[in-house]
């Protein structure tokens, strides 16, 4: 999917992980259209950084809510969490 198609078909996926746990991150919310807008709005309300990656959205979109990410996506998702961590540190917060 090219970036123009992504913007026309708004999608959002929320990832969650337990920093102290040993489980992989999992899909905590996902949706298109109005639901995607709601997910993004809630992230903004809670000062959660948002990263746009249409290719990753396409891959993660195949997973179900509460499903852990598969091993082949660990690197890509680790980059997302590194982005979130760095953004949070630059903002002076701690999540």
TrEMBL record:
**Record InterPro entries:** T3SS_substrate_exporter (IPR006135), T3SS_substrate_exporter_C (IPR029025)
Top-level taxon in the UniProt lineage: Bacteria
Q: What is a single cellular component term in the Gene Ontology annotation?
A: plasma membrane
Q: Which GO terms describe its biological process?
A: protein secretion
Q: Which Gene3D superfamilies match?
A: secretion proteins EscU (3.40.1690.10)
Q: Name one Pfam family in it.
A: Bac_export_2
Q: What protein name is recorded for this chain?
A: Type III secretion system protein
């Amino acid at each position: 999917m090219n970036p123009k198609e992504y913007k026309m078909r708004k999608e959002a996926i929320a990832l969650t992980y337990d920093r102290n746990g040993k489980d992989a991150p999992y899909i905590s919310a996902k949706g298109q259209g109005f639901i995607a807008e709601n997910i993004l709005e809630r992230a903004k309300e809670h000062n959660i950084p948002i990263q746009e990656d249409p290719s990753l959205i396409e891959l993660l979109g195949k997973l179900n809510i509460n499903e852990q990410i598969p091993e082949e996506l660990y690197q890509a998702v680790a980059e997302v969490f590194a982005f979130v961590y760095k953004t949070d540190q630059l903002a002076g917060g701690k999540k």
